[in-house]
Each structure stands twice: as C-alpha cells, then as structure tokens.
Amino acid sequence: MISPLQKARAHYRPKYPDSLKGAVNPVEGEKTTSADHHEEIKKMFPHTYGMPLITFEKGNTAEQKAPVNAGVILSGGQAPGGHNVIAGIFDGLKKINPQSRLYGFLGGPGGLIDHQYMEITAEYLDEYRNTGGFDIIGSGRTKLEEVSQFDKGLEIMKKLNINALVIIGGDDSNTNACVLAEYYKERGAGVQVIGCPKTIDGDLKNCMIEASFGFDTATKVYAELIGNIARDANSAKKYWHFIKLMGRSATHIGLECALKTQPNICLVSEEVEKNKQTLNDIVDYIARVVAARAAIGLDFGVALIPEGLVEFIPEMKLLINELNDLLAEGSAFEEEFKAIADEAARRDFVTGHLSPESEAVFSSLPARFANQLTLDRDPHGNVQVSLIQTEILLGEMVKSKLKKMKKTGDFTGKFSTQYHFFGYEGRCAAPSNFDADYCYSLGLTASSLIYAGKTGYMASVRNLTAPAETWIAAGVPITMMMNMERRHGQWKPVIQKALVELDGAPFRYFAEHREKWALETSFVYPGPIQYFGPAEVCDQPTLTLSLEQQ
C-alpha cells in the first residue's frame, strides 16, 4: 500500500538549472591539481590527473547523438535523494537519445563484480521518484580496489555494451571511482566512470562540491527529533538528554542541528582536537553547564554529542591509532587477540602492547567502553565509532563529577539522564525539496558528463543558496580532491575529507551564541520537513550553506 504522502510526492517535479534544459554545451576551464601530495597523486593517476574543470552552459541547438548504455551503482550507506540521482541520469540519457539504456547493478559494487543487474525502465523508475532509501537497486560496501574486480566488472559491461558507469557514493566510493576510471582509461577499455557526491555526514565538500546530497534532509529529520526532545525536556523539567548524532569524521551534522535547535551544549570534535581537550576537560565543561543551569533552578537540558568525538580527543586518538594498527585485519596480534575468550583477559592482552600513554588511558576507561574500542574494525581498518556509546560514557562521567561537586557545594541541583542516538532515522527519509532538486540536478549533470565523453569526473552543482534555475552544473576531476592518507597501515590516495572550519561562518555563529544557549532555555522546535507550502518554509537550504555564502 502506498501512503498518501508518497502518492502526492510522485507528482513533484524537481527544479533544476536552466543550463541543463534543452541543448547543453560543456565549457572547459582551468586545469586542476590535487588537494595535496601533488607528485604522488600525479604519478598514481597519469591518465586522469590535471584535467580541466567543466562547466555546462546552455547550448544553441539540441544535437541528436548516438544512444548510450550506462550503468549505475549505489555505494555505501543510504542517503536521502539517491533515487532522484538515478532519475536524473535516466531522464538525461533519454533526453539526448530515447534509445539510451540504464542498467542498475544490484546490491552496490558487489553487483558489478558478481554480474547482478537489472535494466531500469521508465515504469519501474516512476515508483521511486522523490522517495527515500536505496531500495531501487540496493547498496553495499564492497570496495572496488583490486584489478580482478575491475576486470570482472568490465566483462559484464562489455556484454551489456555499457559505455559509462556512474558511482553514487561518499569519499571512499568516489576514490574507488577515480581508481577505476584510471584503470579503464589506461587499458583503453572504452568505459567512462563518473562519480556523484553522497554522504549525510557532509564531509565530502570543497570549493566545487558545496554539499553532499542527503545532508539537508538528514539534518532536518534529526533537528525535528531534537526539537521534540527539547520540548519534552522543557515540559518535564527533570532530564538531561545526551544525544549522539551521526558524523564520524566531522561534526557538520551536529553543528547544523545546533544551529537549527539551539541546544544547551553541542560538542564540536574539530574544536576539541584543536584545543587539545582531554576527556576530563570535556566532562568538566559539561558539568559546569549543568551546575550553572541548576543554580537558576533548571535541572534539565539537551547536549549534542558527535559520533566520532572519541577520535578527536588527542589522548583517545593516539590510543585508537595504536589499536587500529594492532588489530589490523590478518595481523598476528589480531589472530591471537580473537583466540582469547575472556573479556578481562583480552583487555590485559591489549594493555601489554600499548605505549605507556595509551596504556594509562585504556586502563582508566570503564570496562565496557574499553571493550567497545576493541570490537571488529570497519572495512577501512578503523574502529567502528558508531558502536561506542560516547553519550553514555560522558553522561556517567559527568554524574560522577557532579557527585564530587555536590560535596563541595558547587552543585546544588539534580541530575538525571536520558540517552539517544540518531543515525538510521535520517538516512532513508523522503528527500526534502532541496535534496529532491539537488539530486535530480546531479543526475542530469552526470548524464551530461557522459555525453561530453568525460571520465574520472564528479558531478557538481553549485550556487545552491540561489533558486535552482540559477544553479551551476559542472564536472570536477576527482583527482583535484585527493591527498594521501594512512589506511590499514599503508599510505593510500583518498579524497580529502572536509572538516568543520573553526574560522568559518557557521562555527563562528555557533560560538557567538553558545554561552547564551547554555544558560537560557532558548530551544527552537523546527518541526517536520515541509514539502508543500510557501518557499520560505519548504525550499530553504541548510543554515550551514546559508551562513557560508553570506
């Protein structure tokens, strides 16, 4: 059964740049260099390094071109709007030549390797326009990194006469797209590879990628939930709510949600790292805010905790890096560690292999949190921070700190906690009008890059705070965004993650207001995403974007 909202959303027609309406003309700009480690990146990508920026402008006459068969992959975690990217690719291909065909590889990159696919038809696609999720073809986290995988993918693409492949994913998925583009170009395989920027974390961002899709919708969903909790806190007046938010590598989600809801506390991982704050420093800060509110009769509040906070605390970062190296997949240490059944014995085994500094930190952690740091690593060899209950760790440490403060008369109130983690709630929401428009525009841009004969490019749509008709559609060489980072104990080329800029307008606005928000109950209750109504309610971009482009 289809909900009334889904029926209504099916009739929504995304807005998109005028430059993509009718004939499209690609204009080459300046040649590019990588974000860092120029010589290393150039050596690794000799066929796709230094390519020019591409901007799409309105053309004079629509030229009928030969049909193109393209493939599309959804890679990594879900983000609102993915279905509209595919719709944009499909419509863009059909606009140039109705005989063009689009194939979806099922279950992510693994579908390309295992030759699992389906042809996406107009009838099938129409059921998914403007809807959330990735269920149109599914997604997966298989990494395209091995030559054998590239060759298996090429087999099925040759069989289907596929000329181009679009990979919709985050920084790692688009890094894989760049590697794949380089390999196919070097071999003269005749397959273009195009990327699309997806991640609700918001950390795939630079001067040419103003926002990754899904961030707008996810933060609106989380802000609604935070607003609901803040309203409850202000009604019951007896709980401090510690809310952990998605965002492992950057605090864009937490900062945007803070700007939307004005909580009493919002920790920003990048600031913690810059100021070299210890775990105790953070606990002291939270306890001081709790005590200050209690002194004026307010024994309640809301604190936002970024998912990846522990990796930004210098002492914890050092510990985690040591654990990542020790527990690297296939290492002798990992095998010996897994053979130990008793958790206490496992902790003792780990402790004996750490540096004195990390041993002291590891030994000071409550047992269950120390255990969480030694759980199986993610596909990149890193600790799975989403499994670490940072919000509970901080809440319990604050509780202990307040007990001591009560004995000295520095805390006179009550402290009761509730804990939340918002992650999955925002990943598959029906896209906001902004994301519906943005994603459709990205798909149209990807199809334009295909017809322009480009490979190793990422679709880019800029000028996002202006009306959609004036957005700028472009193509960015993926190598332009790359640098070298240490992964699995080795240096590898990856797209540089965008962290919160502490001198940027969004953080500065937050920093100017947080002391006021800490003491006063200044909560904002954004309410649910609006799809219908006045543009000032329905079509607004994130506050992050608005502040950045003032």
Write down the CATH class of the largest domain: Alpha Beta
Write down the oligomeric state. Answer: single chain
Distance between the termini: 44 Å
Number of domains: 2
User: What would you say the CATH architecture of the largest domain is?
Assistant: 3-Layer(aba) Sandwich
Nearest-angstrom radius of gyration?
24 Å
Structural class of the secondary elements? alpha/beta
Helix content: 40-55%
* Topology-level CATH name of the largest domain: Rossmann fold
Count all strands and give the number.
Answer: 15
* Order of neighbouring strands in the sheet with most strands: 1-2-13-12-7-6-3-4-5
Query: Helical stretch count?
Result: 22
State the shape: globular
Mean pLDDT: 94
Unreliable runs: none
Largest sheet: 9 strands, mixed
Percent of residues in β-strands: 15-25%
What does this structure look like?
The chain is of the alpha/beta class and about 550 residues long. The protein has helices at about 5-10, 40-45, 80-95, 110-115, 120-125, 145-160, 170-185, 215-235, 250-260, 270-275, 280-295, 315-325, 330-340, 345-350, 355-365, 365-370, 390-405, 425, 435-450, 505-520, 535-540, 545-550, and strands at about 25-30, 50-60, 70-75, 100-105, 115-120, 165-170, 190-195, 240-245, 265, 300-305, 415-420, 455-460, 470-475, 480-485, 490-495. The strands form 3 sheets. A 9-stranded mixed β-sheet has the order 1-2-13-12-7-6-3-4-5, with helices on both faces. Helix 8 (about 215-235) packs across helix 9 (about 250-260) and helix 11 packs across helix 17.
